[in-house]
Amino acid sequence: MIKALDATIEFQLDLFRLDADTRRRVLPILDRLERELVALTPGTDLAKRRRDALLKEAREAIAKYYAEAQAELFATTVDLAPIAARAAGVAISVEAQLPPAGTLAKIAGDAVIQGATMAQWWSKQEGDTAFRYAAAVRQGLAAGETNAQIIQRVRGTAGFPGVVEISRKNAAALVQTSVQQVANDARMATFRANEDLIDAYVWITTLDGHVCEQCAARADLSWKADGTPVGHSIPFAEPPIHFNDRCVLVPDTGRGVGGERASTDGPTTGTFADFLERKGVAFQNDVLGPGRAELWRDGKITLQDLVNGRGNPLTLDELRERHG
Question: What H or E segment, with its residue span, contains residue 64?
Fold first, then answer.
């Protein structure tokens, strides 16, 4: 597994760079949208008929820029799918078979994130932005605000995110998750095409302070190739299991377990629990939350105890009731 682990981590680090570059190209599109919405934003003397026409014009502008953002992301994912498949093949064996080109093309365009396709997520974000902009304009007009005050609602102020700032944050999360989803779907398609070479899958979690309970609980766990848990009861799942998830499955071909892992401090060896112990109490509290971290340090819970039998996070009260 050392070869597979090293190859997967090397590709995952490159994937983070690709995600950052894609966001660098997508987010300026929303910056241009913000400038256009600001230019459209009315003053207090706007008649209802003119207001409705303006909001229609704003919806059209929002649709135009979101279509451009979606196209920019697709340009990345359509090329990413075959690259990810080839990288997964290298992680398995020189004899690995790659999925058909048609399968990879479908992955690039129809990847499902949390039950919806990328196109549906872009459509939802477009609708949300149009709704928030219309609400900001109507609320400002109803309150008799000046043009400058309504523009503040669009742009935001210190401690109060504006319409486009929220949209920018959501778009960044969608880009990152889409890149991970397409790459992981292409990997899994390659793994399934080579099931005879794979004994199990191991869940690799990025070692840093941005790990959720679901991913911390799965860190370093294994499942047989058919999805049966190995030495635990957490059900098999394919990452990403939530927005901004950066976890990855590594195929175990029975060639031995070991190797270095990636972390924000550089390569490291060992489990996620080992990593938490090395980082100290303050870091543990930040990642797990003070209450969960205390239960973990006292030996009352393991990282796997952070989730229920379906892999969903448990509240602190639920953990204390079970293990406190």
Answer: helix 48-92
CA angle 46, 50, 52 (to 5 degrees): 110
Q: Chain centroid to CA 227: how far?
A: 23
Tell the residue number behind the tokens 């060896």, with chain if given: 269
Averaged over 202-210, what is the pLDDT? Answer: 78
Q: Kindly state the tokens that stand for 98.
A: 């790659």
Q: Where are the beta strands (DSSP E) in the chain?
A: 112-113, 116-117, 156-157, 160-161, 200-204, 222-224, 229-230, 248-252
- pLDDT surpasses 70 at 208: no
pLDDT digits (tens, 9 = 90+) for 241-295: 999 998 899 898 864 444 455 555 554 555 677 778 888 899 888 878 888 889 8
Q: Which of 188-202, 213-227, 265-279 has the lowest mean pLDDT?
A: 265-279
Structural contact between residues 292 and 319, judged by C-beta atoms closer than 8 angstroms: yes
d(CA 311, CA 213) in angstroms, rounded, equals: 9
> Any bridge partners for residue 313, and if so which?
307
Q: Which two tokens stand for residue 267?
A: 């390569």
Calpha distance 6→242 (Å, rounded): 24
Instruction: Please give the residue that has the higher pLDDT: either 43 or 267.
Output: 43
Residue 233 has pLDDT above 80, yes or no: yes
Rounded-to-integer distance, Cα 321 and Cα 324, Å: 6
Structure tokens at 302: 């393991």
Domain ranges of the chain: 2-192, 199-323
How many Å apart are CA 271 and CA 207, to the nearest integer? Answer: 9
DSSP state letter for 320: H
For residue 267, give the 3-state DSSP assignment: coil
Contact present, 178 and 185 (Cβ < 8 Å): no
